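User: Okay, second chain of the day. Same drill as before: sequence in, structure tokens out.
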Amino acid sequence: MAEKKERTELGDIRIANEVVGIIAGLAATDVEGVAGMSGGIAGGIAELLGRKNLSKGVKVEVGEEQAAVDLFVVVEYGVRIPDVAWRIQENVKRAIENMTGLEVVEVNVHIQGVHFPSEERVDDPRVK
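Assistant: Same drill. Structure tokens below.
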């Protein structure tokens, strides 16, 4: 994978692939309905990553002027998955293009799991 490299009259500007991955991860997790990024499938269960691992769950291919992104996400239970995926695509494309100047040619969204809210019953005296 090549990093974006630009030459100016003052010198070179280089944007590392990891930077593009972090931008993509942040933009994806900002979308309502996204529980987080997925670190992969372990034992049939999608591993949900916190905000500290934003570049995990993101695969980026950067050329001289273009980028392609694969995102592996976990969505919240009850959301309409195609709508969330479309918003992820739009948000990630906009963020990368605005921050780096790269043309984003692909944003592939892979739904790895569904996050269910914890079920605590407030009226149960055993739950504190």
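The chain has one domain: 26-115.

User: Thanks, on to the next one.
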